[in-house]
Amino acid sequence: MSVTMSTAAPLLSTSDTSVATSTFSFVDYVVFVLLLLLSLAIGLYHAFRGWGHHTVGQLLMADRKMGCFPVALSLLATFQSAVAILGVPSEIYRFGTQYWFLGCSYFLGLLIPAHIFIPIFYRLNLTSAYEYLELRFNKAVRVCGTVTFIFQMVIYMGVVLYAPSLALNAVTGFDLWLSVLTLGIVCNIYTALGGLKAVIWTDVFQTLVMFLGQLAVIIVGSNKVGGLGHVWDVASQHGRISGFELDPDPFVRHTFWSLAFGGVFMMLSLYGVNQAQVQRYLSSRTEKAAVLSCYAVFPCQQLVLCMSCLIGLVMFAYYQENPMSTQQSQAAPDQFVLYFVIDILKGLPGLPGLFVACLFSGSLRYPL
């Protein structure tokens, strides 16, 4: 999904790692390598700036001097993974735009943390959400919360590292596990040496790369099928534009109730009490800046969700006019986006590399 690790799409299938015969051009490799080098450079810059004088507060909390803009983009980026970038368009392609109503949950899901959770955490001058558990209950509860978070994030990071690595393997033949190892090394270096400030500013850069990669797919894809108006017409004719589904049956794939109300609790778990987000809130220079950063996530999340939905609709319109090959039609649903991107961006040096960089940008971050 556009926000979290809870994306409905499965991981790319290991049974078919040769998703396409297309290979990267030299320009594509340059674009991709630049993503890694610039991410590493941002971390090293903050690491060597004031080398030997870093305090625990600077490394873990960015000295509580961050503005709302970088914190907002970092909050957005933390759980915008490659799984979401590949999974949400596939969901729209297969089942229509009902999934878009998840955006209705964003308002309450961000308003509640902004006015309930952030003031409490900020005024207690905490560095961890789990400190609050010890203050409110006892140390045993704090340890249980911490262990649960670590377990959750280890599983999550394994998935989001593997997905883009498999995509890179598919289009370039680059060794799968070497790709995973490279991602892990780059993330560990700039996180360990640069601290939270390096992580936040790297998130800002990588968020912009994600936007550019998705925007390139939308622009090129819609241009090849006759514009966004035509895309909408084709999707409407084939029943892919969904209205409000108010069926209370919990066994229906997506309804307004499950997306809007279920999404609120999902958002609360991610933007209210998740340590990755709480630590970013607490790095803000003031409580007001922390609240504003939470507000700023709302339009950004809506934009990300809309872009993912548009990619799914453009992909649907494209394959109505350009039928999938046998290999494509037999592929796992979560591979559809990768096939589509290769189909429309081939012959445009740099853009396939930008999209793979977009996928890796969804994985080049570790919650501290």
From TrEMBL:
Membrane topology note: Multi-pass membrane protein
Pfam family, one: SSF
GO BP annotations, alphabetical order: inorganic ion transmembrane transport; sodium ion transport
Any single Gene Ontology cellular-component annotation: plasma membrane
Subcellular localization(s) per the UniProt record: Cell membrane
Gene Ontology terms for molecular function: monoatomic ion transmembrane transporter activity; symporter activity
Keyword Hydrolase in record: no
Descriptive protein name: Sodium-dependent multivitamin transporter
Organism: Marmota monax
